[in-house]
């Protein structure tokens, strides 16, 4: 049985907001009532679920893997990182036993925030299953393409640092400074709360 979510305050999916601007993450977790669930957010969740049915009919060739077992919607936790999440798919490769996290995305670009998410899922798998994860995949739904993400040290450090900062914001309910690239503020749904930038 899994512990209470409060033992794992950071959600892996929130990395996207944090990388865009740490303050967006703050608003989301510390002032959740000010943020509406947008159509885009709901659409992302729906697309991930509908992809499961298609994935079950697809072969593992898209991942360059001949045979393996697939698990879907796998709940993951890391006590060390204080992070939780639900991973779209885990592949266990036949023969080698290699464990590979796969995250479905509506995006056509495997941006760094998505790669960091895969790394966090990989680290959670390592902690829960006692394995070493060396790579993962981002499955870009619009392109029907699986992009490999190497879980190298640089990506692990970057992802772990971000999770620690997210946890510190959550624990202290401390509003971080505004984003350096103020061009991001123009399209930001929280603009009206950031009187110090725009
Ligand atoms: S308006 Fe700018 S600083 Fe404020 S949350 Fe949005 S991106 Fe961050």
Salient structural properties:
6 helices, alpha/beta, 198 residues, single chain, 6 strands
Written account of the structure:
The protein is an alpha/beta fold. It contains six helices and six strands. It has helices spanning 15-20, 22-30, 39-57, 112-129, 153-172, 183-186, and strands at 10-11, 68-78, 83-93, 99-105, 135-140, 145-150. The site of iron/sulfur cluster (SF4) has 12 residues, from helix 2 and helix 6.
Set out the fold topology.
Layout: E1 10-11, H1 15-20, H2 22-30, H3 39-57, E2 68-78, E3 83-93, E4 99-105, H4 112-129, E5 135-140, E6 145-150, H5 153-172, H6 183-186
Helix pairs in contact: 4-5
Bound molecules: iron/sulfur cluster (SF4).
Q: Per CATH, which architecture?
A: Alpha-Beta Complex
Count of structural domains: 1
- Nearest-integer average pLDDT: 88
Which cofactors or ions or other ligands sit in this model?
iron/sulfur cluster
Helicity range = 25-40%
Low-pLDDT stretches are none
Q: Could you state the order of secondary-structure elements as H and E? A: EHHHEEEHEEHH
Q: Which structural class is indicated by helix and strand composition?
A: alpha/beta
CATH-derived topology:
Lambda Exonuclease, Chain A
Could you tell me the number of beta strands?
A: 6
Main sheet overview: 6 strands, mixed
In short:
The protein is an alpha/beta fold.
């Amino acid at each position: 049985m899994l512990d209470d979510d409060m033992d794992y305050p950071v959600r892996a999916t929130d990395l996207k907001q944090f990388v865009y601007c740490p303050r967006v993450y703050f608003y989301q977790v510390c002032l959740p009532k000010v943020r509406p669930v947008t159509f885009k957010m709901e659409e992302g969740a729906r697309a991930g679920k509908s992809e499961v049915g298609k994935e079950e009919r697809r072969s593992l060739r898209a991942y360059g893997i001949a045979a393996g077992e697939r698990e879907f919607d796998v709940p993951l936790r890391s006590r060390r990182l204080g992070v939780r999440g639900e991973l779209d798919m885990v592949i266990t490769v036949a023969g080698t036993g290699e464990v590979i996290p796969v995250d479905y995305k509506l995006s056509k670009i495997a941006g760094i925030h998505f790669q960091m998410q895969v790394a966090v899922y990989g680290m959670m798998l390592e902690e829960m299953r006692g394995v070493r994860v060396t790579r993962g995949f981002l499955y870009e739904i619009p392109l029907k393409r699986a992009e490999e993400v190497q879980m190298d040290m640089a990506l692990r450090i970057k992802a772990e640092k971000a999770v620690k900062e997210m946890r510190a914001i959550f624990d202290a309910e401390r509003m971080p400074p505004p984003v350096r690239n103020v061009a991001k503020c123009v399209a930001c749904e929280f603009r009206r709360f950031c009187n110090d930038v725009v």
